[in-house]
Amino acid sequence: MKEIKEYEKDLASIRTMMERSAKFISLSGLSGVLAGIYALLGATAAYYIAQYPVSPLDYRTYTLRDEGVIIKLLVVAGVVFVASITTGVLQSMRKAKKHNVKFWNTASKQMVFNLSIPLVAGALFILIMLANGHYGLAAPASLVFYGLALIQGSSNTFDEVRYLGYCEIVIGLVCAYFAGYGLLFWALGFGVMHIVYGSIMYNKYDR
Amino acid sequence: MKNPFDHLDKVLEHRLRLQIMSVLVTNDVFDFNSLKEVLNVTDGNLASHIKALEKEKYLSVTKTFVDRKPNTKYKITERGRASFKKHLDALEAVVKQQK
Known about the structure:
The complex is a heterodimer. By secondary structure, chain A is an all-alpha fold. Chain A has helices at residues 4-22, 29-50, 67-98, 106-131, 138-153, 160-177, 182-206. Helix content of chain A is 76%, strand content 0%. In chain A, helix 5 (138-153) packs parallel to helix 7 and helix 6 packs antiparallel against helix 7 (182-206). The termini of chain A are far apart. In chain B, a hairpin with a 2-residue loop joins strand 2 and strand 3 (69-76). The radius of gyration of chain B is 15 Å and the shape is elongated.
């Protein structure tokens, strides 16, 4: 018969194995902060493209009809997205190396798969809306779908990601009601929230 | 449970087997190489314990080929899940009894 200590160790190892096999824990907090900064820069660029010289705090009553402006905004959003993903992947690879685990493992594959379903559905939905001239709800829709994607992906990584998802959905819904403040809410959801979330995660896990 | 020690599963007393089962309880399917990586063990060691679990019908094995390389996947059986749960309950009872 084994000693009691051994049974306690058995129990502890069950928990460790369950977490290690299903959770992607190399997700970097710092990359969240950087993604937030990129989003704020993007929002600033978008402001100069679409709204300047009207104050960003003013409620926009007119809608965008100029196709050139829409294309420019899409390019800005695309650059922010690619830069954030690249930073996230590079930082997480570094963190995985430091902890001596593989970056592309069962958990991270599962997470990417889960994340991508609401994300791709949302992206297509927004592109269809834009193609049909429904510009007003693009910003809130991107926030809501992103929030859903985070909640979906959170089961394979830190639980905190789920709460970020809830926040994005709430911000998205409020934004849908006040569509004229779209850019401001977008900056709040993708910029400020990422910086807050990233710094919390960095302090909690990465230091 | 009068004597929780009686409910402990002999097959799962070995820690590596218990760890293999923990991974399979959490994940739908898991392949050999990923298991090896998560558990940080050698091929031979892992294979022999998987064999023991397979013999007890605690897990099922599917062998396929990916790019001509063998890819073996494992899935927990209902029997395996029930045994794991029973063993886990017994473990908790054992530890609790001592406190």
